[in-house]
Amino acid sequence: MHIMHCRQQIFRQSVQNSFRQLMADTNDIRGARLSLLRLQEVYNMKSLDMIEGNYLGFKGPPLGPRDAFEIGQTAFTVGKLNISLDWLTLSLQMYRSLHGADVEQMLFRPSEGSIKALIGRVHLFRGDDDEAERLYNEAKILDPTNGDVLELGKELQIKPRAEPIPTVDYFQNFSRLCSLENRNYPADPSNPKIRCRYREALLPYYRFKEEILSISPFASVIYDFVSEDESKHLKSFVENKLERGKVGGNNSVISDIRTSDLAWIWDNDSTKAKTLAKKIEHVTGLDTSQRLPDGPSSGEAFQVVNYGLGGHYEVHMDPFDAAPEQGELQYSGERIATFLIYLSDVQRGGSTVFTRVGIAVAPKKNMALFWYNFDPAHQKDDLTHHAGCPVLIGQKWICNKWIWTYGNTFRRRCGLTPDATQLDIEEDMKHGYKWH
């Protein structure tokens, strides 16, 4: 009876694994491992905590020796040797603790020889030849035909070394900002101009609560900008249209720089989208009109984006390096402003951070984040480098509307001095540069 039960368990596990392989291709699986490594690095989590299912106090599923081995293997392939060694060492420890366990557990795991061989390869690339040699001698006895054992034997003849990973100057500040608790952190809280106020939209009594986070670059959050109905509409409209997000402007490609799914909604695609575009126009004082199909246009389609576990967007700027070459945005100039709407709360992670000025904005459902990518002298503002922090718990939905130069040249004119800020020209914008 016990043997029959074991066979049933093994068969069920085999079917589950086969089904998993059919549903997720190699890139999906690799992407999931990279997401876990990204979360670990950004939020400074320990490998052992993640194996136990402890994600900064949030409880998740525990990981087994195979999981730890594959994460360590992926870390090795991308050159993260220290992290790789940590995961592989824990995998070996868990492997040894499984002796005497039931058949189902024993069936789905890497061999001890394969783990030791990969640990040996890590040591070899780190320059520890003696330890690599010792592990190779043990591994070739345990599993002489394993791929990593054979590869380690070859590598010991040539002794390769890892290329140093370039230091990214913004990463430390990026990690710090992402790790802050879920609230907004302005650039300079002591500045009296960093304040809350009401922002009018078309009519004096039609106002929104706004919190200014930075003067230069100008950035603010506008609370309760969309209704529950509008938020739900944007997500449901793209439900079956989401595709993997790309980067690169005219020659866009899929990249680990951005891990998300997205879809587009033109203003004329729905009445609610058209109304929302007009609301953005009234609040910002900027033209968002779309002139299809050939342009030029003053605003892009709404970009609705979904970030799952580990979903992120590395530090970047919104303006293109080169203007669009065709379509409704050719001759439209540049993305002078970004209007980002949060369509969901996020339990942990997912903040929008400006790494050069120290701003962190935690996602809050129905809130909008607005900033100018160009200063009042119409110079691209390098301080607007920003990033989407990895989602740790939950999922993140946002909606972007990028506003272009065309149609806004006289709505947002240059400041009167080279160091003029947005607040210096704001009253002129509000009154259309007509004072009586």
UniProtKB/TrEMBL annotation:
The keyword Ribonucleoprotein does not apply. Keywords: Dioxygenase, Endoplasmic reticulum, Glycoprotein, Iron, Metal-binding, Oxidoreductase, TPR repeat, Vitamin C. Gene3D superfamilies: q2cbj1_9rhob like domain, Tetratricopeptide repeat domain. Signal peptide: none annotated. The keyword Glycoprotein applies. InterPro entries: Oxoglu/Fe-dep_dioxygenase_dom, P4HA-like, Pro_4_hyd_alph, Pro_4_hyd_alph_FE2OG_OXY, TPR-like_helical_dom_sf, TPR_rpt. Residues 298-405 form the Fe2OG dioxygenase domain. GO terms for molecular function: iron ion binding; L-ascorbic acid binding; procollagen-proline 4-dioxygenase activity. TPR repeats lie at residues 113-146. Pfam families: 2OG-FeII_Oxy_3. GO terms for cellular component: endoplasmic reticulum. SMART domains: P4Hc. Its cofactor is L-ascorbate. This is Prolyl 4-hydroxylase subunit alpha-3-like isoform X2.
